[in-house]
Amino acid sequence: MTLAERVRAAQPPPPEARRKIRCDARVSLAEVAAELHVSPVTVQRWEQGAFEPRRSKAIAYRNLLEALREASR
Asked: In a 10 Å sphere around its CB, with 0-12 CB exposed, 13-18 middle and 19+ buried, how is residue 70 labelled?
């Protein structure tokens, strides 16, 4: 994966969409946090837009959100 591809992959959806995706999939903050090896408060801050995940976590977070979006359809 090129640097540009990694940067693109690290762009999660906008903060307002993050919570909606999680809630639509009926997944708790704690479940997302456990999957990403972060605290529930960290995920909550990402959903609020207070903080953005670092690149490696952002890629994993984006992938998880995409999988949750697909699973809840």
From this structure: exposed
